[in-house]
Amino acid sequence: MSVISEKGMPWKVITEFSVSVRLFLLSELGVPLVPTNDVHYHHVSRRELQDILTCIREKCTIFNAGYKLHQNAERHLKEKVEMERLFRNYPEAISNTRIIADACKFDLKSLKYKYPSELTTEGRTPMQQLEYLTWKGANSFYGDNIPLKVKEAIEDELEIIAELDVPDYFLTVEDYVTWARKQGILCQGRGSAANSAVCFVLGITSVPPDKSNLLFARFLSKERNEPPDIDVDFEHERREEVIQYVYNRFGRDRAAILPTVFMLHYKGAVNDVGRAMGLSADVVKQLSDAYGNLTDEEITAEQLDALGLNHQDPHLLKVIELTSQLIGFPRQLGQHTGGFVITDGKLSDLCPIFHARMENRTNIEWNKDDIDALGFMKVDILALGMLTCIRKAFDLVQSHYGKTLTLANIPEDDPKVYEMITAADTLGVFQIESRAQMSMLPRMKPTCFYDLVIEVAIVRPGPIQGDMVHPYIRRRNGEEDVDYPSEEIRSILERTLGVPLFQEQAMELAIVAAGFTPGEADLLRRTMATFKFNGMVSKFEQKLINGMTSRGYSEEYARRIFKQLEGFGSYGFPESHAASFALLVYVSCWLKFYYPEVFATALLNSQPIGFYQPAQIVGNAREHGVKMLPVDVNRSQWDYTLEAKQGQYFAIRIGFREISGIREDEIAKLVTGRLKPYTAPHQICDAGVSVATMEKLANADAFRSMDMDRRQALWEVSTLHDRPVQLMQGQPSPSDYEPEVVLPTLRLSEHVVQDYATTGLSIKGHPLSFIRHTLELLHIRTAKDTNQTENKTVIKTAGLILIRQRPGTAKGVCFITLEDETGTTNLVVFPKLFDKYRKDILHARLLMVEGVVERTDVTHVIVRRIFDITKLLGNLTAIRNEKQPVLTLSRADEKASPFVPMDKPLKTWQQPEDSFHKGRNFK
Which helix (H) or strand (E) holds 284? Predict the structure, then answer.
């Protein structure tokens, strides 16, 4: 029990005496009594979890929490009968509660949201302004001969936009997209907005509507009567400029970003509960790692035993029980990726606003689902790393090849580009670089843009769960006949060989074959996500089947279609979204094919992006004939740069950004002071670069142009620690007056180890090349040999682990990619084997497997046994094979970079022509 004037009073200080005194005072002062029960949990069984949450908040354990915990389990919601029993001596208290409840008349639906309407010119209304800009854009793109299909689509869309009264929304998006393009920021609309001809002619989306099958109802419809939702991707490095433009355009009192509620998953929940329950840090880490990577399964008694823990320990079992209860709780409030709410009046009149931790960001406290329920409109200003990469590639082509490229002028449907895609040579490109996509490409054999649209959409959970992938591939390869039960079905599914792959097709089927209205069809699409609309799928199932059977379709066909749509649901792509992404897929592939050095440089300078580490990107560029040059204090910039052509392509110089622990502001001092080549380490120190940074440069072997390897450079830099810079500026280091010291020469394997330790890559060699003799003694084949081995051959192979994937749609199958000095090997590990070798798979860096080669369009190894042989990597620094080459300084001249003034040729080390690097830090 608590009173309204004492809400929140800790129970530990309320004695029976004080309660009596307070009730007497309330009676004397005439203050009504109201029971609130001080509720902290909905059911009495949640008292234990409440105690754990208290310990987490107070940073203590359940053993020393003391009075920080509640005295009993009474702070839960009680039935009316129980409340009346507790307050039987104060019947007026229950009546007062009812009075207060009846007085609370506020309803969130009473909030009146109005979108800003000032983005008009020359006295036009918002709708007139939108019509003016729309037809102006259409004439600009098509000239005076606008295609009839596009013209009719624009007219229909403008009619719906006017009826729903949302022209201001389109004007807002057009405004910041136009501004971004004037600033040279690459951008492109995606999602369902790409179904809109209006969005295309306004310049918001990039795929012409006359080249796709529009279904505007997927984007906006009268029946749904919901606000539009236009997503626009911007370069991820420049998106903040657009965000600040929106803030400045409308004012911070009228515009704010949505928040995102982050939920607790197992790893975070077990860490919190384990600490609160007093488990040791080692045990908590064991439990966390047990789920850790690649799985969200429940922990079992067998797994606890495998961890060396007692699966019958009641304390441990209670930790696991409370962890399962805590999973799904809100952890914290973060920022949405770019969703803005903009209002005509003060936003604070509608909802609370707070400052985000990020500078110059303000947020509201309601998330996306909240504002959707209230009918607030939002715009999405999203970031896409590939747009940054493409823009940087365009800039490099302009500066080095003198050609101006845009998304619009890239030559369409180049057969050579599609040959590269079919060969799955797509490392680093947009969307189709994953293991699953690379496996699908040789089977798909795309030959045109629409094939890429399908490729983007087909390797998704929806089509996989809906059993659409294999039927489509069989029909595409002529292994299965394509049949259409009617011409109206043919018109919808012919472009995807009778298999519904896109959300628009699901809606069209419901409309044409089952008699749904456009609004009902979109609701069907939404209800497929049963976790959001539980119980509504069965309702639409019967409606769909009845509608199709009443129009002459067999019940078997109707149920097959529904089964596909049920698995498909919200996990499938809209065709418009896939088309927007396919455009970037093709552009990135075109750049990779014709300008591999440009694409690799742009990709490396846009990191982090995609599936692959810089080491794999560099190695792939070398495989395509691109020469790589090492990081050097006299030649490198912060970013990767292109230097004079060596062969067919420009050479790529590794940038300082790749060196671990280096700060960009320190490198700026080095580059600014590089008016002529540095000839001694003290000159770099004089430029203002710290000795700590110089040590990192020396560790990265960046002093080769001074005729110093990393060991000699470290020796020289070490003498600068006690050097008074201001007094000794321009003077040699103390070591210059000392007798010459002859340092032991580092072997090649030692250099490679240090390269990986400092930059995560090496262009001097691959670590497995130094232990190949040992691997051969174990009859371990190289990746190249494995990929050329006959089908069904039992082999052993090994490599550094590049990628581990265990998709939710793979039913527990784990896919692993290994790499050695000859290439990569794809492994397939089935669930039982994964459980058996879980520790080795998750923690090994160098893995050896025994398995059976399976050759189809792509070669895989079906794994039978797994061995962690990481300890072999520890011997690299001890290798003293006399046949192993020693890196020596070459006196050969090297052409100077156009970015650095040079007065004499620089010296560089000679790298083995047949060596290449990839892989992750293995030290």
Answer: helix 281-292
